[in-house]
């Protein structure tokens, strides 16, 4: 979810210049938002640079909060604490998202940061359920030497 929020931000600011891909960008946004409740339609939000910045800021805020939660869970788990590389990756991505968030934050912006719309998860892979085949595994009875139950 965190990576998606960062990629949405990139898409929001890259789509600001190209008018020919405007319809494709709107279709992409509509495909991954579960509920887009608000006073303005998505096309109006994408056309207005200030609304686009606010939506991007909301997604970045969501990403920063999820990064902080991941770092907290990492510090709680004993096995994960042994993985220094994971701690490095989590802290670097958190720092990068926080820097982007501070870059978008303006001194004269007194509006409260809105909540980012929910993102619909989707995959192109179909889950396959396979039952285990217990007949192929040799099992030895570890209690055989104890003898029969009396």
From TrEMBL:
Residues 1-18 form the signal peptide. GO terms for biological process: negative regulation of stress fiber assembly. The keyword Signal applies. Keywords: Signal. InterPro entries: RHPN1_2 (IPR047138). This is Rhophilin, Rho GTPase binding protein 1. It comes from Nothobranchius rachovii. The lineage of its organism: Eukaryota, Metazoa, Chordata, Craniata, Vertebrata. The gene is RHPN1.
